[in-house]
Amino acid sequence: MNSRPAIFVSYSQPDRRCAFELVARVEAAGMGCWIAPRDVSPSADWAAEIIEAIAASRVMVLVFSASSNGSAQVRREVERAAHKDVRILPFRIEDVPPSRSLEYFLSTQHWLDAFPGPLEPHYTRLCTHLGAILAEPAMKAEPAPVPSRASLQTPAGLAAGELKHIESALAGFVGPIARQLVRRAAVQALTADALVQQLSGELENDADRRRFSELCGRGQA
């Protein structure tokens, strides 16, 4: 897909019905959305598709609830959006405060409260906000392409097998997205230690960073 919709919708599975209702209302208003699993290409790398869709979007609508508040996948999507300077618009369907891991990214965002129900008038208000956001001039640069495995540069002193080992170690903390994070970091890292140090920054706390570094055989990052 050469062009992607400007709106990425992040949600947790228990909120699937609300997320897809939201997408139907927004798209009926003439604005394109990207939502998984609907827009994941057949046989595609799921994590790569999500990363590329977030990077290409102008705004992320986060369906925020107690469920998404505790979802590691939602947290990673919000982190990616923040790192790519994608505006995040939380659509709060339950009256719950954000967890510490999300509060850092959402504390300065404008929230749309979608409670109490019914949701229909809140969908209308959301469409109005999204229309205003998309009417603003786009300021983001085009996202850099993800390097292919064939073009991946291996840092000095690190064999291909060791690179795979680091990817496996990272996957234990962040899941399938580890493959994409390692690919990107390997292009910039000049040494194996620098690679591990850079990847440890993707982890949420010091304990995980230390454990990841130990699993990579590099001591404390």
Can you put this structure into words, describing what you see?
This protein has 221 residues and is of the alpha/beta class. The protein has 2 domains: 7-135, 3-Layer(aba) Sandwich (Rossmann fold); 160-215, no CATH class. Helix content is 49%, strand content 9%. The chain has helices spanning 16-28, 46-56, 66-69, 72-83, 100-106, 120-135, 160-174, 178-188, 192-200, 206-215, and strands at 7-10, 33-34, 59-64, 87-92, 112-113. Strand 1 (7-10), helix 1 (16-28) and strand 2 form a beta-alpha-beta unit. Helix 7 crosses helix 8. The longest helix is centred in the middle third of the chain and has 16 residues, at 120-135. The radius of gyration is 19 Å and the shape is elongated. The relative contact order is 0.12.
Short description:
The chain is 49% helix and 9% strand. With 221 residues, it is an alpha/beta fold.
Give the helices and strands, then pairings.
Layout: E1 7-10, H1 16-28, E2 33-34, H2 46-56, E3 59-64, H3 66-69, H4 72-83, E4 87-92, H5 100-106, E5 112-113, H6 120-135, H7 160-174, H8 178-188, H9 192-200, H10 206-215
Parallel strand pairs: 1-2, 1-3, 3-4, 4-5
Helix pairs in contact: 7-8
List key phrases describing it.
alpha/beta, 5-stranded parallel sheet, 5 strands, 49% helix
Can you tell me the number of structural domains? 2
Specify the CATH homologous superfamily of the largest domain.
Toll/interleukin-1 receptor homology (TIR) domain
* CATH third-tier fold name of the largest domain: Rossmann fold
CATH class of the largest domain: Alpha Beta
Amino- and carboxy-terminal Cα gap: 38 Å
Return the CATH architecture of the largest domain: 3-Layer(aba) Sandwich
What is the strand tally? Answer: 5
Q: Low-confidence segments, ≥5 residues, pLDDT <50?
A: 146-152
Mean pLDDT: 83
The ordered string of helix (H) and strand (E) elements is EHEHEHHEHEHHHHH
Rg for CA atoms: 19 Å
Describe the biggest sheet? 5 strands, parallel
Global morphology: elongated
Question: What is the topology, as strand order, of the major beta sheet?
Answer: 2-1-3-4-5
Helix-and-strand structural type: alpha/beta
Helix content: 40-55%
Number of helices: 10
